[in-house]
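Notes from the 1:1 (GR / supervisor)

We went over the backlog. Supervisor wanted to see one worked example end to end before approving the batch request, so GR pasted a single chain during the call. The sequence is below; no edits were made to it. Supervisor asked that the structure be written out right there so they could see what the output format looks like.
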Amino acid sequence: MKTKTLLVLATLVLGSIIVVACAPAPAPTQPPAPTAIPAQPTAVPAQPTAAPAQPTAAPAQPTAAPKPTVAPTVAPTAAPAAVGKKYKIGMLAGVTDPFYFTMQRGAMQAAADLGVELVVQVPKNWNVTDQTPMLDAMVARGDLNFLFLAPVDKDAMVAPLKKANDAGLPLITVDTFIGDGDYANGPVKFPLSFIASDNENGGEIACAALADSIGKKGKIYIQNVKRGISSTDAREDGCKAVIKAKYPDVTIAGVDYNDDDPSKAQAQVQAMLQKTPDLGGIFGTNVFSAQGAGTVVKNQGLSGKVKVVAFDATADAIANLKAGTADLVIAQKPSDMGYFAVELAMAYLNGVTSYPQHIATGYAVITRDNMNDPNISRFFYQ
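Structure output shown during the call:
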């Protein structure tokens, strides 16, 4: 019994020792360490939280990427600056006729090509009285940047044009000039340039052909507008010069001036034919002079007998050529004149200083043999 009691006591003491010995290791109560471990997961999630920040930054690139849209936005703004502001260029014609309508078409094409506005005025009659008020009105507008025109008188239009130029309107002349046409060294220097065909040479071509067509002997007659117009003066002078120099057996029976009136031209031609029944040929120096000559010759049944050389390739002149009433038509290039005028105006307005003071546009000589050639028919006035 004593032994049993001792055994129980020993067992209890041993159990207590074991309990005390194991007390430092209360593993179940140390789970706070595991509580520190979860702190890592809490830090790890912080990476995902930072990671989303990259996507947030990444979209910032697309926002910057639209810089390509900046270029288109700037380019259109710069493009008008390259072309310049919307310039307005004035055209003042000499008179209402097919020559100036064709010039206007050339100018309109250039204006469309270069992005400018064309303002056109066309006098009803060829005279200073009609043209000067139109010139003054164009200056008074105040919005024209440049003007090109065909002065109707080389002397009388100097003062009105000088006034316009002094008001700040730069200008050039087309088809006709003022002064002597030498704007570099002549008495009149303020126009920037002069665009036209060589009219004296045109008169020489016309009357050489006319003299040849009548067998280099006989009488010819010049139908002109009036003295004082640079272009038609030069054609008359060229005609007289070539006849004097090369055709001793051809005489000039007379010269009449019709004031650019086709009815007056017809009356004068009729009178000349009555006075000179053996007249061999007529040179019409411009649209209405040639029209008057052709109409009378055709109406009197003299087509082919009285030769006609027409200056300016109007529909009427071409029809007379085709019908045998006219033998030769000389076409200027008014469309080229109008186009070059707008081009030169734009060059000047954009700062170009090296421009020619005379631009020659040349001629096309039209006969029944070549009138159907597209390279020739393109110069018919429209």
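Supervisor's comment: The domain at 199-331 is CATH 3.40.50.2300 (Rossmann fold).
Batch request approved.
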